[in-house]
Amino acid sequence: MNWELLIIQCLNGLQLGLLLFLLAAGLTLIFGIMDFINLSHGAFYMIGAYFCASLVGLTGSLILAVILSLVGVLIIGALVEAILARRLYQNDHLDHVLVTFGLILCFDTVVHFFWGTQGMTIPLPPTLDGQITIGSIVIPTYRFVIITGGLLVAGGLYLLVNKTHLGMLIRAGASNRVMVTALGVNIDRLYMIVFAIGAAMAGFAGMLIAPLTEASVGMGNEIIIIAFVVVIVGGIGSIKGAFFGALLIGLIDTLGRSYLDGFLKLSMPPNYAETAAPALSAMMVYILMAAILAFRPRGLFPPTHKS
Amino acid sequence: MKIKNSLSAHLAKKMSGPTIVYLVFIVLLGFAPSIFSLINEPFYLDLLSRILVLSIAALSLNLILGYGGMISLGHAAYLGIGAYCVGIPAYYEIYNGFVHLALAIVFSGLFALFSGMVSLRTKGVYFIMITLAFTQMLYFTFVSLEEYGGDDGLVIELRSEFPSILDIENNTTLYYCIYLTLLGSFLIVHRIINSPFGRVIIGSKHNEERMQALGYNTYRYKLVCYVISGVICGIAGVFLGNFTSFISPEMMDWTHSGELIFMIVIGGVNALFGPLIGAALFIFFEEWLSGITVYWHFIFGLLLIVLVLFGKGGANGLITALFKNKK
Questions:
Q1: Which of A98, A287, A289, A296 to mutate to test the interface with B (most CBs of B within 10 A)?
Q2: Chain A contact present for B312, CB below 8 A
Q3: CATH of domain A11-295
Q4: ipTM of this complex prediction, to 2 decimal places
Q5: Is 70 exceeded by the pLDDT of residue B7?
């Protein structure tokens, strides 16, 4: 067993998991509180990446660009909520799917219109572009930036949800929406804040990934599906579930891709293993989801009281 | 004479205005190849073949989505399964169309059975997301199968062969095959929704608990319906594979599942002929708008949003409303 490789793969898995968490946290809150299916959540991920890439070019400062684009995505999220999503909370899920599917088409085309089809990279400052050597393990510095950034946001969200008045309302909304309205909370404002925070977190995930993969049209459409799987595995409405679900899926996906063919070779001829392993590792996340749902139909950490 | 009169009276009573419009439209479709060859526009036949294939797929989805209330966001999987059931045998130089059809029926049925067994245990948001996830699983499976082209897909050199019966290398013959399959699917779906079985399906959309209280095991009913729908769509996939002669995992992308729902909604959910009208309008707008601007997706997206916010019932609702106004 190559321990260095295992550690590096675990860090990769952690990185994917934290990115998934940033996407899934907003999704699960929007699901849980507004009972709204937002397929276009991945659009915020894409917009965050494009805003940041352009602003780095304009301002020359990565930190300033990240802050400005966070504000930008926050505003767009609030606008989408106020103009569109708000009208649909009372409708059935099919309407949510259709409208947010339409929104994806619109957002993708708008990005295509302003930024073209060519992807955009975010150049990293030299301090972040290096590598860190611990013992015999070499890890890119930026990987630590992603992991730290993800953990910081997760911690911040934990504090926000568990220690503030707003967080109390959010928790109350996730467990019993009707009761919160009955208690005279300005529910429209709460919905808008939740939607905007969710959008900003998705945008932040997009900014974090863009220096590695570059911003491209439709970049959110694939990862958003895995974020949905995270939400379902974790239990709709549960931030804790989203966190552990995201880490679980990030690790399983990454480790599956690198170690599955080794395991399969133990029990079957190598040439079969080489064909089966990539297919099987692509399916693993979904098999896990099916297995978890078979035993816990409402996910790992379902909210205790649901209206 | 008297019998004939009462029969036509009976028919007239049974058929509403919109149904007659749709039936005329369908009869016209039967003459389409001759019309297109008269005006010398073979490209239109291509377009129409595509519309009819997608109509079959949308019709099968409407059976579970419109009538059964099962919002599946993964129906493109069956188009992919059907297409790969042509592509993979063709890769091994098996061109027999009956083999392709049999494989498509078996595999789309099995996939529907297994994914349905898990997903139908859940409701609402969970169901939507799980159907989506299963399709995505299939998508990535085919992406990782390097043997069959992986991401790049497969080119199908020859269409399915039905020795000494049909030659679907001929576009008109292929068109009529698709046309007849569509008619058959309409009949099947019509029979299903008007049967006691269909009543249970429609009933469990509106009030599942009441159906269960009446003693129906709604889970089993829905599962059977789900499998039927998957198999019909798998057959549509066989035609799609033959028609496009190029298949790739991209056919199963979840955005295509979204497009199928889009078609149903344009045509009108809960309307038997809605999917046909919806698919026709969808392809027509796609061809028309993409000729005008590369940014046509934006107009499509807006159209979808406006349709949901303001236009209930889709094209079927419009046609029905027209007839109501006349009365």
A1: A98
A2: no
A3: 1.10.3470
A4: 0.82
A5: no
